[in-house]
Automatic annotation (TrEMBL):
Domain of life from the UniProt record: Eukaryota
GO terms, biological process: protein K69-linked ufmylation; regulation of proteasomal ubiquitin-dependent protein catabolic process; response to endoplasmic reticulum stress
Residue numbers spanned by region Disordered: 398-489
Coiled-coil parts of chain: 544-585
Protein name listed in UniProt: E3 UFM1-protein ligase 1 homolog
One GO CC term, this protein: endoplasmic reticulum membrane
Domain E3 UFM1-protein ligase-like C-terminal: 693-805
Organism: Escallonia herrerae
Keywords: Coiled coil, Transferase, Ubl conjugation pathway
Compositionally biased intervals (Basic residues): 460-469
Amino acid sequence: MDEELLELQRQFEFAQQAKSSIRLSERNVVELVQKLQQLQIIDFDLLHTVSGKEYITPEQLRLEIEAEIRRLGRVSLIDLADTTGVDLYHVEKQAQYIVSNDSSLMLINGEIIMTSYWDTVAEDVNERLQECSQIALAEIAAQFQVGSELIVTVLEPRLGTLVKGRLEGGQLYTPAYVARVNGMVRGAARGITVPMNLSALWGLLQSLLQEMEGASGVTVGGSFFQSLFNGLVKDAQILGSLRAGVHWTPIVFASAQKECVDSFFSQNSFISYEALHKLGIQQPIQFLQSRFHEGIPLATTFVHPSMIEMLDAAAEDAIEHGSWTDSLSVLPASFLPQDASAILSLCPSVQKALKSNNALLLGDLYVFSNGFVKDLFDRLEKEMETLTLSVPDLHPAKDVKFGNESSSDLAESTETGSESGFSKQVLEKGSKKKKGKSLGNTKMVAAESLPDNQESVSTKSKKNQRKGKATSSSQISDSKSGSRKDVEKIKEDDFTEFSKERLIQKILTLVPDFEDQDDPETVLEPLANHLRPMLLSSWKEKRKVALTGNAQKMKQLLDTLQRKLDESSSNMQLYEKALDLFEDDQSASVLLHRHLLRTAATSMVDMLLHHLDMHNKMKLGIEVAEFQNLEAVSLSSRERIAIAKSFPGPLSVKAIAVVEALEGKRVETFMNTLKDIAEESGLILKKLDKKLDRTLLHSYRKDLTSQVSAETDPVSLLPKVVSLLYIQVFGRALQAPGRAISVAISRLKDKLDDSAYKILMDYQSATVTRLALMSAATGDEEDCTSDRILSKKELLETSMPALKGLVLRTS
């Protein structure tokens, strides 16, 4: 065998020393290899090296890679490419093949690592850990130039074997260090006696560790403390409850909580949720229900059924004795209204009484016996009846003047003569023709004022119907709208007698016991809200009955008012025509206008306001005492304004306007306002036609003639004679005050002969002189004024026949 080997060596050496007869270039060799591969003489793969001067088979490459891995334990693919001289692509391909066939190898981040390498790493880490007691994974990863996740994956299977330590929160700890920290956590947890957030506790422990270990110590994460704490809780080394992972309640505190709650609830039969919140119980209802199964949860309080029995007994006693009770006064002071209301809803006697209508629950807190409420309603109803259905008249009898006033003033004596006799006679005759028109309108107004009556229009003839169609229809529509406004105005909230505040005061007066409450209005307000609709309903029923009884009276009153308005307005228009004669004399015109407004116009307004006031009260169902004599009602300015303001809506505005027009300077303005209020009231203000004008003037002349014939007072005779002369001369009915008589006489100068005019002037001069002496008289015996007055009176009496002769002889 040795000889054969030696022979082969000699042959190999001879071959090496032999010189080739043919030399091939590198290009020829490459082409030769390619040809051999084409001829399949070389039937295996060949890989080029990076230099291009060598070939290597894949099997040889794998063998070289495996040898390098076994030698180093951890090798980079880039380093393998440099070592083998083969392209990185082929190295990666063969490396994947090697790793896939060998479970002890892993290819990570371009490196092939053996399992034995990690064992070596684990041993190194363990040696360092034992020296430092703790080490961060980030530090290990930086040292071995791998990722932290990879380090965790490698070290976890080797903990307790190759690595004697504990991995927690990215840190490695030795068992001794873990035991030390575990003891700190256990001691701190056992020292806690009140609920605490564990995050704050971990912060304190971290600070303590840093103080103990100095600057070289590694910061311990809260998760490490939490892990140790959870283990202690699991092993029952510390007792308590953990909520949401961080809220720790020690068992000593929980026991104290339960004892406190049990003690309070057993003594008081209730406990508020606020008290449990102060004790640190965040879900009081669930806590209480778990401990007291018979308890009842309310809005803010948890109560024992005995509390319901107590309130039920108090309410039952109040219902049986016809009284009332306040649930809050029976329950403890800490109870809120919503709690009391909820307990009342659970009281059996209260619910039974409510269903049988023996009790009322008002304001959710107050239980009233039905008998108590009914008795109070009856007393209030009686009080309200005296206040609303028997309202006294706005115009006391002592303030009303009947009949004609004294004739001290020439104007008043003239008015007495002009209005007392002729107007009624003429209009009673003339109004018969138009009676159907005026009565028809007043019937409509009366019908509109009653809600249950039907509308009716009465007319006498087609002529009157056509003549009054436009006016009547407009008045009827205004009357309807006015009546509706009146009805709408009387609403619950507008009636002061039934206002909530007034009602509360009435209840306090009738039941003084309510004043003993700390805040009576809290009890009285729901009671008043309950009684007010009942009182209003009762008042409306009585008012409806009163309206039905007043219907005929209202119709008669409107008929009377229309008739009197026809008389007064016709007279006013007749007197107004005489004022045109003095338009050229401004001072005299103003004087005559004012006189007419303060006499005839004032009397007419007083009559109109008084009748409308009575009608308005009857329409409201108020009983009004009727005047025995409605012919001559005299009101003061204050009374006129008071009545005008008492009317509803637009009627009040127009009534105030007509009252203010009495203080004006023009009769035309007054007549316009009078027309407005008449239209708003549903009345007709007739215009004076020629026929009625002649009739009135003739009657006025006839009446004045009879008055002049019978007149014995020298002073009163002059204005009547002047008025009669104006009828004879101008055909106008003049109403002139004493201050305007001289101006009126001067207008007659061109219409009378000189002798007649002289008689008038002399008589007027003597009258003025006598009145001046009478006003200047002192009443002393030595005063000679009385003799002069007597002489003037005698002079006037002797001149009276001549003065009367101026008008009587021509009449």
